[in-house]
Amino acid sequence: MHVVDARAFDAVSDAVDQVNKIKGAKAAAAWDESSKFDTEKDKSAFRQYEAACERVKNFYREQHEKQTVAYNIQVRQNFKKTVRARMGIWEAMETLDKLVDDSDPDTSVTQIEHLLQTAEAIRRDGKPEWMQAAGLVHDLGKLLFFFDAQGQWDVVGDTFVVGCKYSDKIIYHETFAGNPDSKDSIYSSEYGVYAPHCGLENVMLSWGHDEYLYHVLKNQSSLPVDALYMIRYHSFYPWHREGAYSHLTNADDERALVAVKAFNPYDLYSKSDDPVDPVKLKPYYEELIAKFFPEVIEW
Ligand SMILES: [Fe+2]
Ligand SMILES: [Fe+2]
C-alpha cells in the first residue's frame, strides 16, 4: 500500500460531505421527507461548515482539471489488471478505519463509525437488509486511496459524467476551464461520445470511491440492483440532487434515482447520531455480511 497522508485525506473527505450538507439543507424538503430518523435535527447547525468551502474549492479545482476521458479510460484498464487485496467486508472496514484513523485522531467520526451509523440509521427505520448492507459498505471504495489512487481527486468528491459537456450543475463548474476536455470539440458537446438517453449504465462517471466499489461488488455480491445504484451513484450530486443529465438518462435511471434519493439522507445526516459500538454491533453485521458477500473479496 502507498504511504499517504491519511489525515489530509479524511479532512477533505469530511469537508466535501459538509458542503453537501449545506447545499442539502437548502433543498432538504424536496428529497428527505420520506426519511424519519433525521426530522428532529436542526439542519441549520450544518451552516458552521461554510468555512469548509475554500478547502473544498481547491480540491475540486484539481479534480475538475484532472478527470479527463483519457484518465478515466486508463484507470479502468488498470483496475482490471490487478487484485489489490483479498479480504472480507469486516476486515475491509477495519482496514479503512485503521489507515485513516492512525494519522487523524481528531476526525469527527471514524470511517467504521460512519459506515455503522449509516447502516444503523437504515436499520432503525425498518428498511430491508440489503439496504442496511449497502449502507454498511458504501464508502469502502475509499480503500482506493491506499492502493493506487493518484491523490484525493480520484477517490472522493461529487462525481459527474466525462466524455460530454461538463454540466453547469456540477459544484464549482467554472474550475473545468483548466480541463483539456473542455476544449475538445466532441467532449465539450452536449452529448459528447454518447447517444441521447443511452442510460447512465453506458456513460463514464468520473473515477472515485463510488465507481471503484461498484465495479468490485457488482460481480462479488448478491446485492440487488437498487443497492448497487446506491453504491455507484451516492456521490453523483449533479444528477441525484440537481437534476442534470436528463438528456442521457433512460427509464432504468428513474428507478435508480428513487433508490439513491432514499439512501442519501442516511449517508449525510447519520454522522451526528449517537456513537456506535463496533464490538457490540459486529455479530449482527457479520451475519448480514454473510448474506450478501463472499467470505473473501478481491479488491
Ligand atoms: Fe461516499
Ligand atoms: Fe458516506
Automatic annotation (TrEMBL):
Signal peptide: none annotated. This is Inositol oxygenase. One of its GO terms (cellular component) is cytoplasm. InterPro entries: Inositol_oxygenase (IPR007828). Pathway: Polyol metabolism; myo-inositol degradation into D-glucuronate; D-glucuronate from myo-inositol: step 1/1. It comes from Laetiporus sulphureus 93-53. Fe cation binds at residues 114, 138-139, 209, 234, 267. Keywords: Cytoplasm, Iron, Metal-binding, Oxidoreductase. One of its GO terms (molecular function) is inositol oxygenase activity. Transmembrane segments: none annotated. Its EC number is 1.13.99.1. Substrate binds at residues 47, 101-103, 142, 157-158, 234-235. Gene3D superfamilies: Hypothetical protein af1432. Binds 2 iron ions per subunit. It holds the Pfam family MIOX. It is found in: Cytoplasm.
